[in-house]
Every structure is written in structure tokens, then in C-alpha cells.
Prior knowledge:
Number of domains of chain A: 1
Oligomer: heterodimer
CATH topology of chain A: SH3 type barrels
Structural class of chain A: alpha+beta
Structural class of chain B: alpha/beta
Largest sheet of chain B: 5 strands, parallel
Shape of chain A: elongated
Number of helices of chain B: 15
Largest interface: A-B, 36 and 56 residues
Number of helices of chain A: 2
Shape of chain B: globular
Strand content of chain A: 25-35%
Radius of gyration of chain A: 19 Å
Distance between the termini of chain A: 53 Å
Low-confidence stretches of chain A: none
Low-confidence stretches of chain B: none
Strand order of the largest sheet of chain B: 2-1-7-8-9
Largest sheet of chain A: 5 strands, antiparallel
Number of strands of chain A: 5
Helix content of chain B: 25-40%
Strand content of chain B: 15-25%
Amino acid sequence: xxxxxxxxxxxxxxxxxxxxxxxxxxxxxxxxxxxxxxxxxxxxxxxxxxxxxxxxxxxxxxxxxxxxxxxxxxxxxxxxxxxxxxx
Amino acid sequence: xxxxxxxxxxxxxxxxxxxxxxxxxxxxxxxxxxxxxxxxxxxxxxxxxxxxxxxxxxxxxxxxxxxxxxxxxxxxxxxxxxxxxxxxxxxxxxxxxxxxxxxxxxxxxxxxxxxxxxxxxxxxxxxxxxxxxxxxxxxxxxxxxxxxxxxxxxxxxxxxxxxxxxxxxxxxxxxxxxxxxxxxxxxxxxxxxxxxxxxxxxxxxxxxxxxxxxxxxxxxxxxxxxxxxxxxxxxxxxxxxxxxxxxxxxxxxxxxxxxxxxxxxxxxxxxxxxxxxxxxxxxxxxxxxxxxxxxxxxxxxxxxxxxxxxxxxxxxxxxxxxxxxxxxxxxxxxxxxxxxxxxxxxxxxxxxxxxxxxxxxxxxxxxxxxxxxx
Lengths: 87, 374
């Protein structure tokens, strides 16, 4: 029920709280009234739940998470250890 | 970046699982509760339990709004649907939920006008299109969904749409978590906190879990890597002797949530003194009803509801499953009398219900999971 999916803003509908969003290739109208403070623009990613955008997705944070995960793996630690041994 | 596939990378997942195995103390048995039905769904769909060492057990929490709707509320909704001129609208998940006298599907087959909608805004659109009918939206969901009902109510009030009302069944997650922590005999070592609820309420409301119950919380996203990273973060806290509220889902969850969403809920709704949760019983201040200013849109005031409390069928053990006391397959009727096609209990209805998720994805690894639970 709390399922929410990412979509990308294609355009904003002037004079309304609505935006056109591309959700996995499907275009649909999304209410972005809860994100008035975010200054949304085409290209931005939003998290959509039952037709309403709940939050703007932070691409930098997403990259930071993935980068952190990459450093957690044993391959990375092994490399790091090997480097240390070389020193 | 598309924010989905990246967080399903199996290579990274395996590496993360190896780190989890390295971090888990073999002398301990960890029990972590994933609060959301969405987490449960991911865990079974992607076989996350198979990646975890045997001394980590995931306990499924109460965060499935369809699962916690008591049978009496379903009966009340069907009563509304049978009033003259009414169109009852609801999310698709609700259609099969059994009430004391059948489900919405049964009522629809018997002639009631019950329609599935994707969004409360679609329910309002039906009301605009059909001014001669009375359109009622059966609102369910946690804080994730309540803002969309709130904005729809605002829009209805602003446009002066008189034939639209809401049968409000919104619930709040914090009292449910508290009820679980208070329930005797359930040992938990930490929580995977609700990701999408937190986009609205933020991470601060979980402080009590840390302060009063001394259990770590990691607000978690819903992709496989999110779940694995959150488990890793919980283990890390425990191994370092820390107990904090942390946010794994930073790409989506702001620490303070969405103030506009909270404002919209506060304007249109208020806390009920108490509400019955399926399986958990009556919990005080755990659900929302419409505020006085929106009384004209409140189906509970417009229609005279039976409001009868209906006991769950004797064979049904949803309550134990919702509290994490029983695993789905330990229920007496799981997969035999109770299946997604003919559910007896709510946990088998919603795709996020632990029983349905397990029935659809998890059955083949049951032996493996059994070992893990031991």
C-alpha cells in the first residue's frame, strides 16, 4: 500500500498543482502540490504514491549510497589491504 | 540513473551479504523487524533471507494498511455501498478483503456500485462527472497515503463538490510499533523503519524506540540493496554498542519529512481517541478521522453505520502474523484453506501481506527459512 515509485517530470501544467511525469515509460499526470517548496523542473525525479508526489529524489544522495556500498564489498577491502601491504 | 535497477545490482548485493555475514556475531541470534509490508514483499520477492546468515531472522511487522483493517470496517463500507445512489471507490487492494458478510467483490457481484481507483483524485473526478450520485472514497493507509486524501479533501472543499465524501480509515505507524514493543514475549534486536511513511513524518518520531526501548532503528528503502544495507547498518550499530535512529533511504527521506504534507493532514483530519486494528486490538490515538471543518465530507457522519465489531474467524491467525509472533507458514490455514484466491485473513489479501508475499515467492525455500528460524 505504501508502494511508491520514481517518475521523471516531463513538464509542469501551468496554473495547477499538476505535472506530467514519465513513470517507467508511461506518461501520467501527478499532483506535485506537496513539493511546492522544491522548485521542480522538467528532468527532476519524484517519488509518486497514488498519483501524488511525496518527495523529490535526491540524485546526489542516491549516488553517494551506491558509492558507499561499493566500498563495503570484500573486493574493495581486499584491494585496500593489498595496497597497504605494498606500502 | 533510474533509481530502481541500480539498487537491485546482484553483484553488490552479494558483496553486501558477505559483509553482513562477517559482521554478525556467530554467538548471537539477531531478530530484526521490518515494519512495512513493502519491505516484506521485497524480502520474499528477491529471496533476501537466502542471502543472510542463519543467525539473522527477519520478523514481519504490522505495516500493511490493508492487513490491519478489522472486518467490521469492511462491513461498514459495504453498508455504505448499499445505500441508494452511492458509488463506493477504493484502492484495488481492498476488493478481496473479507468482512463479516463477504468482501467488496461479493457486494459488487450482488449489485453494489463499487469501483477501484488508483488515486483519491480519481474518486473526486468521478464525483464531478456524476453529480447525481454520492461518491464515497474508502481511505486506507498510513501517513504515506493520508496526505493524498487530505489534498483531495481540500480540492473538494475548494470546488464546493457536495456529493463527495471520505470513509476515513487512515492509521498511524508509531502507535502500532509501540504496541509491538509492549507486547510480551516478542524479542527484537532492531527495526527496519518505514521508508515511505518517513517521507511524510521524517525520522524524529522513532526516537522513542531508541530512548525508551533501546533498540536501533534504520529507516529503510524498498529495493534489495536498501534492505541489505539497512541490516548491515543495524549490525554495525549493535557491534559498536550504538543505539540510534539512522536513515539509509537518504535519496528519498528528508530527516524532517514533508512539512506541507503534515500540515495538510492536520488541517483535514484529527486523531481518533482509539481505533481497532486487526490482530492488535484497540490502540489509542492510532488512527485519523476527518476534522470538524471537513464534517460535510465525512461518510461516518453522512451515513448511519452499523459499526459492529466482528471477531476474526477462529482459524485465522493474522494477529500473530502481524505482531511477528508467527511466521506465515506456521498459521494453521496457510496455503490450504487460506490462499490469495480465497483469503480467510487479510495478510493473504494484499500483495504486501506477509502471507501473500510468502505464498507467492517464498514457498520454495521454506526448508531453508525453517532452519534459519530454529
